[in-house]
Specification:
The chain has about 475 residues and is α/β, with parallel strands linked by helices. The chain has 18 helices and 20 strands. The longest helix is centred in the middle third of the chain and has 22 residues. The protein is globular. The relative contact order is 0.14.
C-alpha cells in the first residue's frame, strides 16, 4: 500500500548512526544504578564494573536483543474494538499528553494545580473523541501522597475510558508491582495481562546514558509481567546530549538499544516500543525547546532508526500548542514541522491537549487537537498501487480526449479513492488564532455532561481501590 511518508536520513547516515551507537554502548557503556540489574546483565555477557556501575554491552548482546523484541503487537483496550495493532499501515495512533502539573480550568479560565477529578475529566473527553486513539494519564494528581500518585493516575484513567491507557509515572519496583496488579484486574488476571496487555508504561532513561535505580528495577518488573514498555529517551541537544543533531540521534538511539537489552535479558520476548521525546534546550534559558526546528528532525531520524531495527516506535508529537492559552498559535512553517514529525513513520505519538510546553492541559485544547488531527491524518490514507488500480484497461476503454466521469469504474471507486476533509471540523484549523476556543469549550463541556463511559465491574473497582488504599497505608507506616 502507498502511504505518504517523509525521510530524513539516507542509508549511509542510518548505517553510521547504528555503528556509532554500537560503539558507544561497547566502549562508553551505560551507567545502571542497580546492583540487581547489573548482576542480571553480567550473567548475559555484559561487561560490568560494579565500582562505577557502568555496563558495557557487546554488539552480539545488542543484536540478539533486537532479534527477540516482538516486531508486531496489539495494545489492548477495555473495548476490543479500540485495540491498536502496531506497526501501523496508515497514520499513527495519536494520544493525549503526558504528565502536566496544572490544568486551565474550563469554567473560570484560571490556572490551578491538577487533581484526580481533572484527570478523570481529561480522560473522559479524550474517550469521546475520534481523533484520540489512546489516553495517557495526562496530569499529576497533586492532592494524593507523592509516592502513590502514579497509581491514582493509572486507576483513574482505567475508570474513565475504554481505550488503551499509557501510564507515565513509575515510582519504584514496588509501585510497578501495584500498577501490574491494577492492570491485571482490567485484563482479567496476570496471565491474561501477559496475553492482552491492558496498558503500556513510559520508562525514561536519564540522558546521557544512565538508568536510575528505582526506574530500571521497575522496568524489569514490567518486562516480566508482559506489560508493554515504551523506552523513552529525552536527549536534549546541548544539555544532556551533544548539541549536534547527529550526536543527539546517537545518544537517543544508544539509550533505546540499552533499554531493549535490559528488557530482553529480564524476559526474552518482552514487548517494547522504541521511543523518544528529544529536542534541543534553549541556549537563552536552558529550558526544553519544543519549538526548535530540530525537534521534528530528531523525531524523523529516530523513526528511521526504529524501522531499521524493525521495531514499533513512538517518536512523533501532535502537540499543537506550546503557549499558555488554548488555540492554534502556530505559523505555517511551525505546522510543517509537526507534519514532518507525524509523517516520519512513527506508529504512535502523544501531545493532544497540551499547553505551555507540556506543563499543563486544557480540555478545550484536547478538542481542538483532536479535530485538527482527524483532518490531517487523512493525508496518510493508504492507497493500493497495483495493476488493478492503475486501470489501464479503463483508460483504453475511455479513449483519447473523453471523460471518465460516467464510466462505471469511477462510479464504483470514487467514494473509496477520493478522500474529503471534514469541513465542519476544518473551522478549527486557522493558525495563529483563538477563534475556535469558545466552540471547543462548549464541546468539551457537553462531553462531560453527556458522554457515558462503560463502568468497571463493581468488584473490580473495589479491588483496585483496596490495592491503592492498602499500599498507601504501607508507605505511610514506613515514613
Amino acid at each position: 500500500m502507498a502511504v505518504a511518508r517523509l525521510r530524513f536520513l539516507d542509508k549511509d547516515e542510518e548505517e553510521l548512526i547504528d555503528q556509532q551507537s554500537i560503539e558507544c554502548l561497547e566502549t562508553i557503556g551505560v551507567k545502571i544504578k542497580s546492583e540487581n540489574v547489573l548482576n542480571m546483565l553480567e550473567g548475559a555477557g555484559v561487561t560490568v564494573d560494579k565500582k562505577t556501575q557502568v555496563a558495557k554491552i557487546p554488539e552480539g548482546v545488542i543484536r540478539e536483543a533486537l532479534k527477540t523484541v516482538p516486531k508486531e503487537m496489539t495494545l489492548h483496550a477495555r473495548d476490543p474494538k479500540r485495540d491498536m495493532r502496531i506497526p501501523v499501515s496508515s497514520w499513527p495512533y495519536t494520544g493525549t499528553t503526558g504528565l502536566g502539573t496544572y490544568i486551565l480550568d474550563i469554567k473560570s479560565g484560571k490556572r490551578r494545580d491538577s487533581t484526580v477529578k481533572d484527570i478523570a475529566d481529561c480522560v473522559k473527553v479524550a474517550d469521546a473523541l475520534d481523533g484520540v486513539a489512546y489516553v495517557q494519564t495526562s496530569l499529576t494528581a497533586t492532592e494524593v501522597p507523592q509516592q502513590t500518585h502514579g497509581l491514582h493516575e493509572l486507576w483513574t484513567a482505567f475508570q474513565n475510558t475504554t481505550k488503551h491507557v499509557q501510564g507515565i509515572e513509575i515510582y519504584d519496583s514496588e509501585d510497578a508491582k501495584k500498577q501490574i496488579e491494577l492492570g491485571a484486574l482490567i485484563a482479567g488476571g496476570k496471565e491474561e495481562l501477559k496475553k492482552r496487555p491492558s496498558f503500556t508504561v513510559i520508562h525514561c532513561s536519564i540522558a546521557p546514558l544512565m538508568f536510575e535505580h528505582d526506574a530500571v528495577e521497575a522496568l524489569v518488573e514490567f518486562a516480566k509481567a508482559g506489560v508493554v514498555i515504551t523506552t523513552m529517551s529525552m536527549s536534549l541537544s546541548g544539555g544532556t546530549a551533544p548539541v549536534t543533531l547527529a550526536g543527539t540521534l546517537v545518544n537517543a538511539n544508544s539509550e533505546n538499544l540499552a533499554s531493549m537489552v535490559i528488557s530482553q535479558v529480564a524476559s526474552k520476548g518482552a514487548r517494547a516500543v522504541y521511543c523518544s521525546s528529544s529536542t534541543p534546550v534553549s541556549m537563552k534559558t536552558g529550558m526544553i525547546n519544543y519549538e526548535s526546528i530540530n525537534q521534528p528532525l530528531i523525531a524523523a531520524g529516530l523513526a528511521q532508526m526504529a524501522k531499521r531495527y524493525g521495531l514499533p516506535c513512538m517518536v512523533g508529537d501532535w502537540g499543537l500548542n506550546d503557549s499558555e492559552n488554548p488555540g492554534l498559535p502556530y505559523t505555517f512553517s511551525e505546522t510543517m514541522g509537526i507534519a514532518l514529525s507525524t509523517m516520519s513513520g512513527t506508529d504512535m505519538q502523544g501531545g493532544i491537549g497540551t499547553i505551555d510546553n507540556v506543563k499543563g492541559i486544557a480540555l478545550e485544547q484536547i478538542v481542538i487537537d483532536s479535530y485538527v488531527w482527524e483532518n490531517f491524518r487523512l493525508q496518510m490514507t493508504p492507497f493500493e498501487v497495483s495493476r488493478n488500480t492503475t486501470a489501464l484497461d479503463v483508460i483504453r476503454e475511455v479513449g483519447h480526449g473523453n471523460t471518465f466521469l460516467s464510466h462505471m469504474h469511477t462510479v464504483k471507486n470514487f467514494k473509496r479513492e477520493i478522500v474529503e476533509r471534514n469541513h465542519d471540523k476544518g473551522r478549527f484549523e486557522a493558525t495563529m488564532s483563538e477563534s475556535m476556543v469558545p466552540e471547543a469549550k462548549e464541546i468539551a463541556l457537553r462531553i462531560l455532561r453527556e458522554h457515558d463511559v462503560e463502568p468497571l465491574d463493581r468488584s473490580v473497582l473495589e479491588q483496585g481501590n483496596a490495592i491503592i488504599r492498602d499500599y498507601e497505608k504501607k508507605k505511610m507506616k514506613r515514613s
